[in-house]
Amino acid sequence: MSQHAPIRIEGLRKEYRQGDRTVVALDDVSLDIPSGSIFGILGHSGAGKTTLIRCLNLLERPTAGRILLGDVDLAALDPAALRRQRRRIGMVFQHFHLLHARTAAANVSAPLEIAGVPAPERRRRVAELLDLVGLADRADAWPSQLSGGQKQRVGIARALAADPDMLLCDEPTSALDTETTGQILELLHSVNRRLGVTVVLITHELAVVKAVCDGAALLEAGRLRESGPLPALLADPASRLGQWLLPPAQEPVPAGELPPHARLVELTLADTLATGPVLGALARELGLDVTLLGGGIERIGGCRVGRLLLALSRAGGPPDLPAALSLLSAHKVRAVPR
C-alpha cells in the first residue's frame, strides 16, 4: 500500500432512529477521492456533509456500505484495528477544538503522546510542524493568546502530527474572516503539495472549492448528485457544480447590434484541456470574424478556466457553424451554440 492511499466510498448509507421513524442521513453515496488531491464536498446545511465526514473517520458507524482507505475497509474493523487505522486520518475542526490548558506546542504533541511516541521524537516533530504552519515563534502561547487563524494553524499542525494519509477538514474556514480564510486555504494547499496528504474539505462555500480544490462533489438531502475533477465538471454543460463555479457568459449587447448572420457560441476553456490559440484558428482556418461579447477567465482549482460568449460571422453570408464547432472540439474546447 502506498503511503498516501486513495479513498473509496461504496454504497454508504446512514440511518438514525427518531422516535418511531427512521431518518436517512446518507443514501447510497459512492465516491472516489484520488490520492494526493484536495477534494471539496459541497452542500447546504442538512445535506449530509457532517454525517459523511463522521462516517469517514468512523465516529459514526455506517448503516451499510464500505469506506476504503487503500485496501482497508474501515467499517469492517474491530475497535483495536480501527484505532490503529485512525492514526492515518487527521481531523481539522470548524471551531479549532484546542485544549485550553495546553500551549500550542502541547496541543500539537497530544496525539503523539496518545500514540506513545518518545519525548525526544515528540519535541522534534512538534517543532517541525509548528514551523510548517508558520508558528515556530508561538510554541509556548496559550490558545487564549492566539488569533482565530493561529488557532486553526495549530489545529492543522495537530492533525498532521501522526503523518496521516487523509486530512479531513470540517468547514475549516467558516469561523474566519475573508483574509484569514485565504491564508488558511493557502496553507492547506501548501501542506497538500509538500506532504502529498489527501485533503477532504467539507464546505458550503463555493469560493473555498474554487480557491484550492482539484475535484468536488455535491451532496443534496443525503444523496450524491455529482462529482469529479473540476475541469471535467466545468466542461460538462449538464453539471450544476460547473455552472455554479463558472456561470454562463451573458450577452451584453442587443441582438440587433450583432454582425449580420452572426451565430452565438459559448466556449468553456481550461488550460489543462485546451490546446493552441483557438480564437485565432477560427479566423485563420475558417475565415470567420470573431466578436467577443462577454465572459471572462479566472483561476479555479489550480488551472485557468473561462467561459466566453462569441459571435461568429463571415462576410457575404452565415458562418459554417458545424465546421467551427468541429475545429473547437479538435482543440478540446467545449462549444455550445446559443
TrEMBL record:
InterPro entries: AAA+_ATPase, ABC_transporter-like_ATP-bd, ABC_transporter-like_CS, ACT-like_dom_sf, MetN_ABC, MetN_ABC_transporter-like, NIL_domain, P-loop_NTPase. Gene3D superfamilies: 3.30.70.260, P-loop containing nucleotide triphosphate hydrolases (3.40.50.300). SUPFAM superfamilies: ACT-like, P-loop containing nucleoside triphosphate hydrolases. Keywords: Amino-acid transport, ATP-binding, Cell membrane, Membrane, Nucleotide-binding, Translocase, Transport. GO terms for molecular function: ATP binding; ATP hydrolysis activity. It comes from the Bacteria. The keyword Glycosyltransferase does not apply. Residues 7-246 form the ABC transporter domain. One of its GO terms (cellular component) is plasma membrane. GO terms for biological process: amino acid transport. Belongs to the ABC transporter superfamily. Part of the ABC transporter FtsEX involved in cellular division. Important for assembly or stability of the septal ring. This is Cell division ATP-binding protein FtsE. The lineage of its organism: Bacteria, Pseudomonadati, Pseudomonadota, Alphaproteobacteria, Rhodospirillales.
